[in-house]
Amino acid sequence: MIEATGGLAELRRRVAGWRREGLRVGLVPTMGNLHAGHHALVRLARRHADRVIASVFVNPTQFGPGEDFARYPRTPEADAAGLGQAGCDLLWQPPVDTMYPLGTGAAVRMRVPGIAEVLEGAHRPGHFDGVCTVVARLFNQVQPDLAAFGRKDYQQLAVIRHLVADLAFPVELLAGDTVREADGLAMSSRNQYLAAGERAAAPQLYRSLQAMREASLAGAPRAAVEAAARERLEAAGFAVDYAVVRTPGLAEPADGAAGARVALVAARLGATRLIDNLEFTLPGG
Ligand code: PAF
């Protein structure tokens, strides 16, 4: 694997060269501190593209005041080694002044209404503005044919789908399945913040999602499903931001209606905020 150490000009030269050869280019945007979930995204992109670029950029504009931007784990050597093994061809690690040449204060921002304003958007105001702002820049810099994002960040994927559809980015989106630890905890760079006792409690997040799915399939009303999940998580020591069942578009479904559903939770163990989700289908009568 090579790194585009020559900056944006070198990145564009390489991508243009691949294009001239008729090769399809995939992008896996990341913030680094890569784990098996990211490596699976690289392998997914590899199956659909001839060349894969991974970006590593801890994006300041998607962190709110008091969030973990400064302490977000940065592990460049391990990231480069893992990406090479996963089949990545080129690493794009732009400095902040390449990503935001006029400074973050003067940066043109993207804002997706509606779907970006609920759940994560409500609890982390401005978060998805930052995500969309950097994803649009990455698409412009790399000009990929496809890009892979994880289903673990369910709402992020939905927001990026909206961004791509509305701005007509010629980028095919691929969704990678959530990769879990043996006890069900979804892999996340933030898991390493957990103290031993918190790590022991953390799998309750996935178990609560499974319980939400089972209760929904058994016909329990949505309000009861959500209240039981919140209670279960609080009993396990979580401070719950939300535990909800939604349609794929994140609307509140009517009780008794059939169709696709997603259970989503966001909760904190100590100072660490974790999110997870589980998709399922309620069969028709
Ligand atoms: O999912 C992430 O790691 C980030 O939100 C992304 C998509 C790389 C944008 O910074």
Automatic annotation (TrEMBL):
| EC annotation from Swiss-Prot or TrEMBL | 6.3.2.1
Question: What family, per the record?
Answer: Belongs to the pantothenate synthetase family.
The protein's matches in NCBIfam families, at most eight in alphabetical order, are given as: cyt_tran_rel, panC
Q: Which gene encodes it?
A: panC
The family database entries (HAMAP family) matched by this protein are listed as: PanC (MF_00158)
**Record protein name field:** Pantothenate synthetase
A cellular component term (GO) from this record? cytosol
Q: Which GO terms describe its molecular function?
A: ATP binding; pantoate-beta-alanine ligase activity
Its organism's taxonomic lineage begins at: Bacteria, Pseudomonadati, Pseudomonadota, Gammaproteobacteria, Lysobacterales
Quaternary structure per UniProt?
Answer: Homodimer.
Q: Which UniProt keywords apply?
A: ATP-binding, Cytoplasm, Ligase, Nucleotide-binding, Pantothenate biosynthesis
